[in-house]
Amino acid sequence: MGEVVCRNIETDMLHKARLISSKHRMSGPLADSIVLYSECFGMPSIVTEIILYHKVKRIDFCYRITMEAIPLREAFVLFPFGNSDPVFSFQGIGAPVMAFDDIIAGGNTNQYAAQHWCKVAGSDFDCVLASDEARIIEFGGINTTAVSQAHHHLNPAGWEKPYITRQDISNSHIASMILYSNCQTNFPFVQQGEVIYRYSLTTGKNVDCEGFAESFVYPPAILDGNTAPFSVDTGNGNVTVLTLKQAEDGDGMIVRLKETRSKNADVDLCKMMRGDFRFFLCDSLERTVSENSLQVYTLKPYETVTLRIKK
User: Fold this and answer.
1) Distance between CA 308 and CA 305 in Å, rounded?
2) 130 neighbors 200 (Cβ within 8 angstroms)
3) Alpha-carbon Rg for the chain in angstroms
């Protein structure tokens, strides 16, 4: 789980990372962690920290990788989940997307662009993988990378085969692509230097993917100040706070709420804040839509609402 693999595009050979050493870095009341020091083809230094949480069903994989300027290679982080009868989905633009089912024929390659999370739903349990830096996902393991024939530096093995379908999937593995350098352009196409990639995963039955990715991995952004002047409690398991910040025009605060489980949610705004506040509906540019103060707001499935908060 979390193995780093590099593929030589010219020879189609896979190079697995070689473990050099490891150490137990952290042991505390919330989590334990181990640090692995490895190396791989074109990556002389791979530092991986794996964090296990004691009371939260979550595992973190954090990578700091040094990459050499070697062309014609691909690199992946592998997550070989063990779900039975896997069904793959991921966070698209504004709504979840079912891989293969929601894509018209020819509308996607073997690689999918996920926003923050992807999921393998099985007959026994679900696995959810979240990441903010690595957005290119492959289902069923490592597949042939598809690029315009006008821009291949050379044809990789299997380039002439059709894109994979649901019928081609024999396992519930997910491969996260972190490097690709097989483009023929008018400048040398190489990636070098130090990069950081972070992943969080959880398992269970009917996992709330949006809630896990936004509430656990990417907590609400509190801007224009070190701490919020009040605490926020939506009181709804299917509503998460995306943003809590000072209004751009300086008139009060702005809070953005999002429904995450595809069902209506009634939010009692007066109970959400500790204190005496008024709430005004705004558009995404923070322009007030109505001068009437709200007490309850009903979020539609996957709706995001912007509210101005004033004393």
Assistant:
1) 10
2) yes
3) 22
d(CA 20, CA 37): 6
Among 133, 147, 131, residue whose Cα is nearest residue 90 = 131
Task: Write down the mean pLDDT value for the chain.
Answer: 86
Instruction: Pull the structure tokens for residue 65.
Output: 């990788």
Helix and strand counts by DSSP (H, E) for the chain:
2, 22
Lookup: tokens for 246: 């000072």
pLDDT 10s digits, 54-64: 888 899 999 99
Q: How many CB atoms lie within 10 A of CB 169?
A: 18
Are 246 and 201 in contact by the 8 Å Cβ rule? The answer is: no
Tally Cβ neighbours within 10 Å of residue 204: 12
| SS3 label, residue 204 | strand
Classify burial at 230, counting beta carbons within 10 Å of its beta carbon; exposed 0-12, middle 13-18, buried 19 or more.
Answer: middle
> CB neighbours of 11 closer than 8 A, spacing ≥ 6?
none
Distance CA 180, CA 94 (A): 27
- Strand pairing category for 73-81 and 3-8: antiparallel
- φ, ψ dihedrals at 210, nearest 5°: -60, -45
pLDDT, tens only, 289-311: 988 999 999 999 989 999 999 98
Specify the amino acid at residue 130. A
Token pair of 241 as six digits: 């706070």
